[in-house]
UniProtKB/TrEMBL annotation:
Gene3D superfamilies noted in UniProt: P-loop containing nucleotide triphosphate hydrolases
Alphabetical keyword list: ATP-binding, Nodulation, Nucleotide-binding, Transport
Protein name per the record: ABC transporter ATP-binding protein
Superkingdom to which the source organism belongs: Bacteria
Family note: Belongs to the ABC transporter superfamily.
ABC transporter domain: residues covered: 2-242
Pfam families: ABC_tran
GO molecular function ontology, one term from the record: ATP binding
Amino acid sequence: MIRLDEVHKSFTVKDRKTRKPKRIDAVRGITLQVKPGEIYGLLGPNGAGKSTTLRMIASLMDPDAGRIEVCGLDTREKPEAVRACLGYLSTDMNVYGRFTPRELLRIFGEFQSVDPVVAERRGLHLLEKLDLADFADVKMEGFSSGQKQKVSIARALLHDPKVVIFDEPTTGLDVLTAKTVLDLLRIMRDEGRTVIVSTHVMPMVEEICDRVGIIFDGKLHGDAPPRDLLRSRNARSLDEVFFQLAAETEGGN
Ligand SMILES: Nc1ncnc2c1ncn2[C@@H]1O[C@H](COP(=O)(O)OP(=O)(O)OP(=O)(O)O)[C@@H](O)[C@H]1O
């Protein structure tokens, strides 16, 4: 279970022109819940606050205000226990080309205190599910971006996490590779895991997400099953809802 209650996060950066400190309100009061056995899709334009939200859920960053609970644990009070119960795929995963997938997964298994025999078995099982088992013993330096992404996904799921957080998992992947990743997310959901995924790819959201939330300007809009969202907005696609919200947000600013 993931629970966010009125979560806020700001950053202070230097304004490029004036060189004075400038505050960016990246997340402005987000409240949401994702249940076990559910895939929640987080949509939004560049810079909307999706990755910041996911990083806070993954307990890699504290909220300034509000509360986040993962697996019944407060991310601020128990960050290590939270990290042990979740698998996080970020947009900037590095796979270390000197290693093979099997070697990398062994190392990450040790980091996560997974029994080496279990880590080996589970790592190979994940590589098989991701159509990468034939490359388990090949050094990753020549891997394509899709192959590297698959290894990162196996690494994120190696410790059998109850909660799965994937930040833009299909960006840069061809349709076949993207389908393999989406199929794996469906399996995760069907196994009763809590899944949250951020994306720009609307058809993917309509296809696999049980509920979607759209972040604009750090705020959450339209938290509902995709079909209900389309009906309530009299829209034919999530793209259309996205454009409506963009127009409303601009109108309100
Ligand atoms: N560490 C940081 N320091 C300063 N500003 C940051 C930091 N992280 C994020 N931001 C700012 O917070 C805002 C939200 O960023 P975030 O990465 O969460 O957006 P996003 O919705 O994931 O965007 P994208 O789809 O482009 O990845 C942006 O204005 C970004 O520049």
